[in-house]
Design goal:
It is a single chain. The chain starts with 8 loop residues before the first helix and ends with a helix. It has a single domain, classed as Four Helix Bundle (Hemerythrin (Met), subunit A) (Up-down Bundle). It is mainly α.
Length: 119
């Protein structure tokens, strides 16, 4: 399996380049939204898994995939992509380990982003 970066430095530089003279204010704003929203999406995964709500489950995985890609959280994006694919092809059977992996990768991404935006 390919090892993905927790946070892709090129994605961070791309975000910084959108507002180069703002002292990382835009980057902090985007990171804050990501760090506030992703736990809500993880909770949706857990709730929809318990309720066997496949459409909601798949949407939550897709949302995490997209937001993590935008911020360069590539390891998290990869797990969310695998979960979304798994849910679309196999339903929710054996999906719980993916949800746990997403929570773990989010914690890693959050820690790295916090270091980046508090420099």
């Amino acid at each position: 399996m390919t090892e993905f970066l927790v946070i892709d430095p090129q994605a961070i530089e791309n975000l910084r380049s959108l507002n180069p003279d703002d002292n990382d204010e835009f980057l902090r704003e985007i990171a804050d939204i990501f760090m506030e929203d992703t736990p809500l999406r993880i909770a949706e995964l857990e709730q929809s898994l318990a309720a066997a709500d496949l459409p909601k489950f798949t949407r939550a995985a897709h949302s995490i995939k997209g937001s993590s890609a935008n911020l360069g959280a590539m390891a998290l994006r990869a797990v969310a992509e695998r979960l979304e694919h798994h849910a679309r092809t196999n339903g929710m059977n054996a999906a719980a380990p993916f949800v746990a992996e997403i929570a773990a990768e989010f914690a890693r991404a959050q820690a790295e982003l916090t270091k980046l935006i508090t420099k």
